[in-house]
Design brief:
Chains A, B, C: Keywords: Pyrimidine biosynthesis, Transferase. Chains A, B, C: GO terms for molecular function: amino acid binding; aspartate carbamoyltransferase activity. Chains A, B, C: It holds the Pfam family OTCace_N. Chains A, B, C: InterPro entries: Asp/Orn_carbamoyltranf_P-bd, Asp/Orn_carbamoylTrfase, Asp/Orn_carbamoylTrfase_sf, Asp_carbamoyltransf, Asp_carbamoyltransf_Asp/Orn-bd. Three copies of one chain form a homotrimer. In chain A, the strands form two sheets. A five-stranded parallel β-sheet of chain A has the order 7-6-5-8-9, with helices on one face. A four-stranded parallel β-sheet of chain A has the order 2-1-3-4, sandwiched between helices. The first copy, chain A, has 13 helices and nine strands. By secondary structure, chain A is α/β, with parallel strands linked by helices. In chain A, about 40% of the residues lie in helices and about 15% in strands. Chain A has two domains: about 150 residues, 3-Layer(aba) Sandwich (Rossmann fold); about 150 residues, Aspartate/ornithine carbamoyltransferase (Rossmann fold), CATH 3.40.50. The termini of chain A are close together. Chains A and C meet through helix 4 and helix 5 of A and helix 3 and helix 12 of C.
Chain lengths: ~300, ~300, ~300
């Protein structure tokens, strides 16, 4: 355990693939402490955390801010200047500036690889708060934590990942995360136009993640333990009529869940794919999931920036 | 008194109508402490306050932020994400997110009833920082505090509420607040097009608030003790000429005040209705009023979030 | 020394011309402490610093924020409301509002004289974070600190100030700062269209700053000890072809520096005038310069707001 703890110290968090099962399990145990603890320790009182969001994301930005503040850290935010930064200086110079000001950078960026590039430039730890279309490692950590603490296990379960598997970085990240565990089966449920990218599918095949492709949630609902739902955005469809025709197959309704014991996860924010009527079903796990976002990120920041013990 | 103090604990602040005279007087006494105290107590050091302003308002946002910070609380602000939130997820989901992050939410919203809706959804206290066209309870508290601490009383005075009574939520809120006290008379002074909404007038009539309607401040200036001035915005008039013709009747000039002992209040920001020449008259109370915004909100946050004693 | 320290207390920082050589040297000595100290003292824990940037400036805003936070102060930021403030109330009323909320205001404004005007209105210290085209005093302090701590002296050196001398407030501020010391020579290197404003040149002449005007850096490169480079913005040229033709004369390349022992300073952000290849030359001092921005501003805030000793 002590070894794992040391492996987190001052570490970049770029892709969930960079973490071992043991490291993730340690993170989950640390998260448990912050879930139950009323009063947060003041472990980061000498630290400054910078949030640099080149794409808006309320939940990710605020959950990191709250996590840092609760541990006593100070937070600086790049938001007021993002629009002029995008027109102005290079990304490399912006990162170098933040390296001078902060002890850790949380970055969200539309470009694939932006977080990795920042981490290579910067001697301070960089946390990827989502970049490109594949990586959002802290969301995947939260997803697995929620499965683990709700169902008692991650291994041996049947998962359905539903919706836009092409553009949703949370879907890809969760699939990468599952390769660190032993799921019984992963059903990929999406319209063809929003199917998982070939390169992601190949990578998962190589590590023998058991997967099946489906075009409707109805086909698998009776077998799954975990439904992971993502937003389907109208704009992704060339033809609005196709959107109307297809969207029903990726909406989780209350009546659909009556046939199912599965827990429902969603990274939020949601659109039509997750109606409010589901909030009060026993299946809904996404509200708890959202609330655990802060303690999980407290545990993460504390492992990375706190004194190794 | 102890009973009143308990009645403030964990309370929502949606409309000034929800508070009793005794509760307001307790708030004013607590405010006195923060006005005179040099060093603020660190009573909220474990708390996080979220400011969620779906409409810009510098004074209200910053005075709540400063009040929270001075009491040791941390502040998170939704501003950088407001534009994308307005296009994106539901207001209910946004409030639910903030409920997970903060111990109290200060909300400003253009829609009537937004604060009440948020308070119903959210188990944490919600403070209405202004919604729709009628409610801005903390401004009304500040207005009455200023009258009370400047003139020594709220009862028995003659008030003139002047300007845009139709769209100004601060004017309606003050009138609602006055129903908790015993003003001698309230003069409503506005152009016809900007007269008090019928439903507000009716409600005030029902509780027998003594009111008279006027179309010019000149008609009542010699009798009033308190002038409450609001902005008249050009855009409210269909005809720009009408604006030019009328605005003079709702401007408080230095020469007008020479005939008057009245104190002048204004929620700020101001436009042409309150020329700078008035700032140095003995009548001007709005600068003091603005500076008392922080101690009043410190008292409010402390009563709601501090330990009940 | 004690006398100098007192002269900094509660002081406005509007123009570098307002400070004596002794005062600047005291600031530099105080900065040394914050450069070497690992743990910042909590001297400003009762203070609130407001950043009011009516023009975006990431480095200046964040370096002041970080400096204040590291000293234990709280920071409030006007950014979310700047666009509505620019349409709305007067600048004077905005400053008066901030005076009520904060213990010190850091201001950036496009208009010449905005900081002076604010300082006259406001009893709390105002720091000019850049206004108009001539003044950015804390950047000039940082520039001279970097020269002093890199070359061991400010006097007796040969300087080249290169690029846009007309619109760059950092260039003018540095020139004003040099009048407090004894440089051997200052070369002004710019295209004619971007030459130093006559009024600035006159003012420098009056205090006998030794100056020479050049149109290319090549002319002086072999003699200079310090190259101060500023951005040349395409938009300043009426004719894009002229920009293309001229810009080469104001770019500092690695091969150019092979003939030179000069250190290179740049206020950042940079554009084409300072290629990345220069970053790894021994001449590059601008990265160190940027990192010293925080300790210098810590020293400044501490001298102004801390207890005089």
């Amino acid at each position: 355990m002590a070894k794992n703890r040391a492996s987190w110290s001052k570490r970049d968090v770029i892709s969930i693939l960079d973490f071992s099962r043991e490291e993730l399990e340690l993170l989950f145990e640390e998260t448990d402490k912050f879930v139950t603890q009323e009063k947060a320790p003041n472990t980061l009182s000498e630290k400054i955390v910078a949030t640099a969001f080149f794409e808006p994301s309320t939940r990710t930005r605020l959950s990191f801010s709250v996590a840092a503040l609760r541990l006593g850290a100070k937070v600086i935010d790049l938001s007021p200047d993002v629009s002029s930064l995008l027109k102005g200086e290079s990304f490399a110079d912006t990162i170098s500036m933040l390296e001078g000001y902060a002890d850790l950078i949380v970055l969200r960026h539309p470009s694939e690889g932006a977080a990795l590039f920042a981490a290579e430039l910067c001697e301070k730890p960089v946390i990827n708060g989502g970049d490109g279309s594949q990586h959002h490692p802290t969301q995947a950590m939260l997803d697995l934590y929620t499965v683990s603490r709700t169902l008692g296990q991650i291994d041996g379960l049947v998962y359905a990942v539903v919706g836009d598997l092409k553009y949703s970085r949370t879907a890809s990240s969760l699939l990468y995360a599952l390769t660190k565990f032993k799921p019984k089966m992963v059903h990929l449920v999406s319209p063809e136009a929003l199917a998982l990218r070939k390169e992601v599918y190949q990578r998962l095949k190589e590590v023998s993640l058991p997967m099946e492709v489906h075009s409707s949630i109805e086909e698998v609902i009776s077998q799954v333990d975990v439904i992971y739902l993502t937003r389907i955005q109208k704009e992704r469809f060339a033809d609005p009529d196709e959107y109307k025709r297809l969207k029903g197959s990726y909406v989780i309704t209350k009546s659909l869940l009556e046939k199912s014991h599965a827990i429902v996860l969603h990274p939020l924010p949601r659109l039509e794919e997750l109606p409010y009527e589901v909030d009060r079903t026993p299946n809904a796990a996404y509200i708890k999931q959202a609330h655990w976002g802060v303690p999980l990120r407290m545990a993460l920041l504390n492992l990375i920036l706190g004194d190794s013990q």
